[in-house]
Amino acid sequence: MISIGFLVNPYAGMGGPVGLKGTDNCVVEALHRGAIPQSPLKAKRFLSGLNKSDFLFYTAGGNMGENELKSADIPFITIYQHKKTEQTHKVITSALDTKKACIEILKRNVDIIIFCGGDGTARDIFSCTGPYMPLLGIPAGVKIYSSVFAITPDIASKVLNEWDGFRVSEGEIIDVDEERYRNGYLDTHTYGIAKIPSSPKNIQSCKMVSSGDDSQMMHEIASFIIEIMQEDTLYLLGAGSTTKAITDKLGLSKTLLGIDAIFQKNLIASDLNEEKILELSDRYPKTKIIISPIGAQGFVLGRGNQQISKKVIQKTGIESLIIVATEYKLKNTKTLYIDTGDPVINHSFGKNISVIVGYRMAVRKKLNNY
Amino acid sequence: MQTKIILDENELPRKWYNIQADLVTPLDPPMHPQTQKPVCPADLEPIFPKELIRQEMCQDRYIDIPQEVRDILTLWRPSPLYRAHRLEKMLKTPAKIYYKNEGVSPPGSHKPNTAIAQAYYNMKEGIERIATETGAGQWGSSLAFATQLFDMECKVYMVRGSYDQKPYRKMMMQTWGASCVPSPSPDTNAGRAILNRDPKTPGSLGIAISEAVEDAATHSNTNYSLGSVLNHVCLHQTIIGQEAQKQLDMADEKADVVIASAGGGSNCAGICFPFIKDKLDGKNPDVEIVAVEPSACPSLTKGLYAYDFGDVAGLTPLLKMFTLGHDFIPPSIHAGGLRYHGMSPLISRLHADKLIDSTSVYQNEVFDAAVLFARSEGIIPAPESAHAIRIAIDKAIECKRTGEEKTILFNNSGHGHFDLSSYEAYFAGSLADYEYPAELIKESLQKLPVIA
Asked: Does A227 touch chain B (CB under 8 A)?
C-alpha cells in the first residue's frame, strides 16, 4: 500500500493561453480574460492511467483533488476543505490553501505527495515539505522548469505505477519571477532539491551493476572528477547533489544551491556570485566549471545557475565546462539547452555536448542552443 | 549480376596464416604477473594444451589445419561472400560493397572457427572438460557446440546479468550439452566469496574469468579456453580473410578497404591479417585496413599502448596492448562483445606500426546502419558486426562524394537474432550514446608514472 497526498491547483496553467505568462497572483484576471481551467483535466488523465488498487489517497475538498478522484471512482479521504466548496469561479483557492492542505497531508505520514500544477505550486508544496518528502508533479502550469514534474500526466501515472514506495532520485524546484517575466526578463531561481520517485525500469543504466539508485552513480562521477583534478586549476562547482557528491567525497562542505570554489582539493570560497567568480578567475588563470543540467528541460547554462554568466564563460572559455549528471537525470531529457544570452557563445558549443555519467564514462547529448 | 560468391568445400583453407612471421616489429612478450619476466610455456601448461601454447608463440608463416577440424568447419564453411547490390543501390554509391557472412555458422558467428580448433587440441591431449566464461553468450555457445562434437564436457560461467537477460543463449548451450551457470556461482571459491559479500550481484566478465580459470586449475581433467585476444585465437580466424581473398579473385576484384569491428580483436584479425600480408608483400600495398570500435570502449582509438592485465581481476599475464586500463568497466552497450578494456596484442602491434587504422562510432549510429543493412540486404546483423557496417556505409557515401569506385569489404561477423531487445531499445529511442571521456582522462594520466 502506498499512501499518497494528492493536490490539484485548479487554476494552474490558465495564465498562458490568455497571455499572462503564468497564473501567480493573476487568477481573477485570467478568469476575466476567459481562461479555462487546465489542471482538472490533466489530473483526471493522470488518475485514469493508474493500474494498481493499493493506493490510499488523501486529498483536499472540491476542485483541489476531491472532484477528480470522485470522477475517477477512486476511494480517498478528504483532510482539508477550503472555505466554500466551489461550484462557480467565485471562490478562488489560493497558494495558502495549497500550503494548508499540504500541512494536513504531512500529518498523515504519506509516502509521496502528487500535485497537479506548475512551478509556483511546486514551490508552495516544497516550502511545506522540505527536501525529504518524495514529490511528483503532474504538469499543468505555464512554467514547468522544475524537475519534479513528469513530462506528461501519462508518464506521471507510469512513474507511480512502477514506484516501489521508497526508491528516490532528486530534482530541482525552480521558479521564474513572473512579474519580471511579464516585463521581458527571465529570472529563474533554484529553490531547493526535492526527492522524486524513481524506478529502475525507467533507467537505461550505464552499468549492469546499477541498482537504479542515483547515489552509486554520483559516487562514480565524483571519483572520476577527483581523479582528473589538477593542482594548478581552480574548480567552480555548480548547484545540485551531483556536484555536492564531489565535495562530500573530498570531505568538504558545499552549499547545495550555490557555486563554490575548490583549489588543490580545498574549499576556498562558497556561494559565489558572478562578480566574485570573475575575481577568482583573474587570480587563477586555469579554471574549470563543473555543473549539472538544471530543471526539467535540462539547462546547462541559462536557468537556475545564472552566476555562470556570459562574462564568466567568455573569460574561462567554453572548454572549461565539465558537465556531470546521473543517467536517471538525463533519461527524460533528449536534448540539453544552453542559453548564455549570447547566441554566438551558445552556438560555439556545437550540436552535441559530452556529459560525465560515471567513472571514466560519458554520454553524448544533443544540444539546443538559443 | 552475381550476389553470392561461393567456394567449394575443398577450397577451405588448409593452413592458418600466422602474421607473427611477417610483423614489422616483433611482439613484446607477455609478462608473468608476479615475476615481471617473460612468460614461458611451462607457465601456461596448467590451463592450456601444449599445441595451443606452441601456436601462441610460433613464428612459422603457415600452420596446418588438422583434417578433423577442416571436416567440422565444412558444416558451414567456406562462408559465402556477398556483393551488397541492394545496399549499394540504396546508398546510390559507385563503391562496390562486399561482405563475408559469418552468421551462417551453427552458433551464428565467427567464434566457432577457433572453438572447434581449441576443443580439438584439448581433446588430442587427453583433456575431457573445458571451462570458459562468456559475456553476451556468443563464445559460450560456440564452445558448447565445439566440445560436444569431440564428446567433451563444457562448463560455461555466464555473467549473471546476461544469463538472466538472454535465456536463449543458455538454452543453446544446454542443447549442445554444456553446463551453463550464472556467474558468480557457488561452484568456485571466487564465486562463493563474491556471493557472500553481495548475493544479488549481476556479476562481470572479470569475475567469470576468475571462476573459469579456477575451475581449470583445480580440475586435473579440465583446461581453460579463451575466445579472443590471444595469438592462437586470431590465427584460427584467418580462414575468413583467406577465403575472402579467393572469393574476391573469383569476382576479379581487389579490396581497397577492409573493415571489421574490434572488441578483443579476433574477428578483425580473421578478415584483415591475410590482407595485411598482401599489403606488406606489395601485392596490394594501398589496401586500407580499419578496425571499428564503440565510442564507449575505444581501446585502439583512445587507449595507451602499454603492458596491462588481460582481465579485470589482474590474474592473467601482462600483455603489451592498447588498453583503457584493466580496471575500466565499459558501459553496458548493446554490442556486449566489444566491451573489452584491451585489444589483441597482434592487432595492437599492427596498429602501432600503422598497418591498421582505427575509428570509433556511437551506438545510435551503429543501429542506424544495422537497420539500413537489414532493410536492404535482409540480414539482421549482431550489434557488434554493425560497427563494421557503419563504417562500410560511411566509406561508400564518401565514394559517392568523390566519385571513386572503391571495393569495400567488411566482415559481417554474426547475426543479431538474439539481440532483438537491443533493436527494440533503439526503436524506442532509449539508447544512450556513451563515450569515453579521453581528453579528461588524458589530463589525469599525465600525473601517472610512465609504464615501461
From this structure: yes
pTM of the full predicted structure? Answer: 0.80
- Listed by number, the residues of chain A in 306-345 with a beta carbon closer than 8 Å to a beta carbon of chain B are 322, 327, 330-331, 334
Residues B285 and B379 in one domain: yes
Candidate from A208, A357, A365 with C-beta closest to B161: A208
Q: Of B425, B431, B436, which is closest to A360 when you measure between CB atoms?
A: B436
pLDDT tens digits for chain B (452 residues)? 899 999 999 999 999 999 999 999 999 999 998 888 999 999 999 899 999 999 999 999 999 999 999 999 999 999 999 999 999 999 999 999 999 999 999 999 999 999 999 999 999 999 999 999 998 899 999 999 999 999 999 999 998 878 887 889 999 999 999 999 999 999 999 899 989 988 877 777 778 888 998 999 899 999 999 999 999 999 999 999 999 999 999 999 999 999 999 999 999 999 999 999 999 999 999 999 999 999 999 999 999 999 998 877 777 889 999 998 887 878 777 777 788 889 999 999 999 999 999 999 999 999 999 999 999 999 999 999 999 999 999 999 999 999 999 999 999 999 999 999 899 999 998 899 999 998 888 766 554 434 44
The DSSP bridge partners found for residue B407 are B96
Class for the domain spanning A2-201: alpha beta
B205: closest chain A residue by CA: A208
Flag if B444 and A227 touch (Cβ within 8 Å): yes
Q: For position B282, which CATH number holds? A: 3.40.50.1100
ipTM associated with this complex:
0.80
| Shortest Cα distance, chain A CAs vs residue B427, angstroms | 14
Q: B226, B241, B270 — which closes off a domain?
A: B226
H or E element: which one contains B60? none
Helix (H) or strand (E) holding A296: none
Extract the runs of DSSP E, i.e. beta strands, from A34-167.
55-60, 76-80, 112-117, 135-139
